[in-house]
Amino acid sequence: MVNTRKVVIVGCGMVGSSIAFALMQDGLFSNMVLIDSNKDKALGEAMDLSHGLPYTSPMEIKAGDYDDCTDASLIIITAGATQKVGETRLDLIDRNVHILKNIIEEIKKRDFKGILLIVANPVDVLTYEAYKISGYSKNRVIGSGTVLDTARLKYLLSKHLNVDSRSVHAFIIGEHGDSELPLYSSANISGIALDDFCELRGFSTHDKAKDEIFDDVKNSAYAIIAKKGSTYYGIAMAVDKICDAIIRDEKTVLPISVVLDGEYGLSNLALALPTIVGKNGAEDVLEIPLNVSERNRLKASANQLLDTIEQIESKD
C-alpha cells in the first residue's frame, strides 16, 4: 500500500539535502527517508534536519535503506557525480548511468508502486534510462526537466520588465542543457503577449533583449558553478513544486522530463515539455503550438539526446 505522505530521497549531496530542507519546510510529507552510499552522511543530514522540526510541521526524518522504498509515494533520485567547472551535463553520462542502474535495480527488488522523480544530470537521458530499466509506466518515471530553467527565464524576464515574476508565463523546453529553447512565441505577461508588454514598458529591441535573456538562462548553471562550485537552492525549489503538484494532485502545467511516444513526432527519448502533473505523475503531455523556428530547434535538441542515448545503448 502506498503511503502518500512518504518520500524517499536517494543521494544526500548538496542537491539532495537542499531538496530535503525545502520539503521539510513545505510540510508536504510526514515521513522522509534519506538514502546515501555514505550512511553517515545520510544520518548526519537526518539529524540536522530533525533538529529544526520544532519550528515546522510534524514529520519523521530518518536515514534508511532501500527497504524503505516499498510503501513510498515518491522516490527522488539525486545521486550521481556532480558537474565540474567547464563540464557539460552530458559529460556526466557514463558515470551517472552506472550509478542510476544500481539504484533502479535496488528499487525494483521492492514492491514500489509510486512515482520516480529523476533529478541527477543529465536528467533527460537518465529519465529515459530509468524508464527502460525499471519497466514502470511512463507516467510514473519523470525528471525535473526544465522546471528550473523556466523559473530562471521567468525571473530574468520579470527583472527586465520590472514586474512580478509570478505574472510571467513562459517555458523553456527540450534538453535540460545547452540545446534547450525558450518558447517566446507563446510567452505572455498575465495574458498580454510578451512583445506587446515590452512595448508597454518602453522596450522595442525585442529580438536582441530576448536573445540576451535566454543566453543568461542557458549559462546560469555554468556561472553559478564557477562562483560557488554547484547549484542546489534553485533546483530544490523546483523539485518542491513538482512534489506539490503530485501529492496535492494540483494538475499543474510544468515542463518536466517525460518519455515521449509520438508527441511532436518524437519518440524513444525523454525531454522537457509542458505537462499536466498530478497524483499519477505525468498525466498529459501538452503539444502546445510552436512556430517553425521552435519546432526545428526542438527537433535538433531531441536529435542530440537521441544520439546520446544511442551511444549509451551501443556500450551495453
Key descriptive features of the protein:
316 residues; alpha/beta; Rossmann fold; L-2-Hydroxyisocaproate Dehydrogenase, Chain A, domain 2; 2 domains; 3-stranded antiparallel β-sheet
SSE topology:
Elements: E1 3-10, H1 14-26, E2 31-35, H2 39-50, E3 60-63, E4 72-77, H3 93-108, E5 115-118, H4 123-134, E6 141-143, H5 147-161, E7 168-169, E8 172-173, E9 181-182, E10 188-189, E11 192-193, H6 194-200, H7 206-228, H8 233-247, E12 252-261, E13 267-278, E14 281-285, H9 292-315
Helix pairs in contact: 1-8, 3-4, 5-7
Overview in brief:
The chain has helices at residues 14-26, 39-50, 93-108, 123-134, 147-161, 194-200, 206-228, 233-247, 292-315; strands at 3-10, 31-35, 60-63, 72-77, 115-118, 141-143, 168-169, 172-173, 181-182, 188-189, 192-193, 252-261, 267-278, 281-285. It has 316 residues and is of the alpha/beta class. A six-stranded parallel sheet has the order 3-2-1-4-5-6, sandwiched between helices.
Query: From the coordinates shown, what is the CATH architecture of the largest domain?
Result: Alpha-Beta Complex
The CATH homologous superfamily of the largest domain is named Lactate dehydrogenase/glycoside hydrolase, family 4, C-terminal
Write down the CATH class of the largest domain: Alpha Beta
Please estimate the helix content.
40-55%
The overall pLDDT average reads 94
Number of strands: 14
Task: Please count the helical segments.
Answer: 9
Strand content: 15-25%
In whole angstroms, the N-to-C terminal distance is 35 Å
Radius of gyration: 19 Å
Instruction: Give the strand line-up of the largest sheet.
Output: 3-2-1-4-5-6
Q: Spell the H/E element sequence.
A: EHEHEEHEHEHEEEEEHHHEEEH
What is the count of distinct domains? 2
Main sheet, how many strands, which sense, barrel? 6 strands, parallel
CATH topology of the largest domain: L-2-Hydroxyisocaproate Dehydrogenase, Chain A, domain 2
Poorly predicted regions are none
Structural class: alpha/beta
